[in-house]
Amino acid sequence: MSWIQRLEKVSEGHYVLPKTKTMRVDADLFLSDKLLYGEGPDAPGLEEAVFSQVVNAASFPGVTRVAVTPDCHVGYGVPIGTVVETDGILLPTAAGYDIGCGMVQLKTTLTAEDVADKQKRRRWIDEVIHRIAVGVGASRAQRQRKVDARTFSEVVRHGAKALGRTNSTTERDFIPVEDDRVDIPERASGKRDQLGSLGGGNHFTEMQVDEEGRVWVMLHTGSRGFGWNIAKHFFVEGARALGLNSRSEDFIWLDAETKLGREYWNLHNMAANFAVANRLIIGEAVCAALEEVFGGTADIYYEISHNLIQKEAGKFVARKGATRAFPKGHPSLRKTSWEHTGHPILIPGSMETGSAILFAEEGAAKSIYSVNHGSGRRLSRGEARRVLRQEETDQRMAQAGILLNTRTTPLDESGPCYKNLDDVLETVEMAGLARVAHRLTPVACIKGAD
């Protein structure tokens, strides 16, 4: 029997994979028939390898629930687009290497008409790059904020609060570091100067226009080398503690009450706080660049993570490439500005097809209050470089009027590399998890050049 044949359809957009093999719990998969079975080469179905990773996610000690989001695709250990709820167990593999990676949305006073001039958009790109560092390994080029040891110590312990951001513009002010005496691994401590820098790969800063002609800016980046090296440290140490070889990241779990578990939790939280502060610092630089070039102003609308473990209702909830989705009335939103609407959910698609802002529905309880974090890759980076043509890709971007900071379009980040965002958003709404509030079209994109 194939994996797909094992699935039980609950309702439109919602399947269940019953316990099989080593699974301790059933797994809920939020997929449309189109995303599951596919509709030709431009809309392929779900990769077979995803299912064995779902089994792995549901097989860890302490697991109580597993949910898989519509953008799911093969990752490391568990699929990207997976939520795992556990009782007393921490899963480094379900937080991943880029701990705290996530989004910031800036809402501006500008309109599409204000940014219609391509030369001014090009100037804006140059101004942003002047103010932040861009790309893999980039260090401090942020001109407006020097990060000394004391400030860095405050940032990794108090995140947004250390920057004076304590209102409802962030998913949380900070994640508490419960033991201030924890030592930061040497391999991570040297990455302080990456605070205020944009990572490579799929990380970006993008100017967008919504359906009403309002200009927004979306940022995507994480904890940079700081978080990556913390994750690597615990993948090595966790494997050693479990008697596994050093390449067994897929199977590592930590008891939260052990010394190693407590160390991971505290350092994971430091990386998460770094990531939030990193996004806010970049956001401030982008706002300054907008004012410099266009004369308009911008404010941080919302900030949220999608690679993170958080404590919710007494359990650990690990979201690997998945976004928290609390609807109106959720206890965690009490006394915030989102109490009566639910908080915004920021969903990047691709630099060709655009992005979206959603708000959760009551049905999000079915998916452990989570939805997808993007549209989901369908071509690996290597495959994209093999099968896509540079000239055609550049022509599509030019015809769409989308400006880039790179000389040519990165093929491995172009539109065909990702699933159709509208198919994914349709599934989210079909399953009753969230509703789309804004659909955003890109007009200028800054990518971390690898």
From TrEMBL:
Q: Which UniProt keywords apply?
A: GTP-binding, Ligase, Manganese, Metal-binding, Nucleotide-binding, RNA repair
Its EC number is: 6.5.1.-
Matching Gene3D superfamilies:
tRNA-splicing ligase RtcB (3.90.1860.10)
Signal peptide, first to last residue: none
- The answer to whether the entry has keyword GTP-binding is yes
Q: Which InterPro entries match?
A: RtcB, RtcB-like_sf
Work out whether the entry's keyword set contains Repressor: no
Task: Tell me what reaction this enzyme catalyses.
Answer: a 3'-end 3'-phospho-ribonucleotide-RNA + a 5'-end dephospho-ribonucleoside-RNA + GTP = a ribonucleotidyl-ribonucleotide-RNA + GMP + diphosphate
What superkingdom heads the lineage? Bacteria
- Name its co-factor(s): Mn(2+)
Q: How is the cofactor bound?
A: Binds 2 manganese ions per subunit.
Please state which protein family the record places this protein in. Answer: Belongs to the RtcB family.
Q: How does it assemble?
A: Monomer.
UniProt protein name: tRNA-splicing ligase RtcB
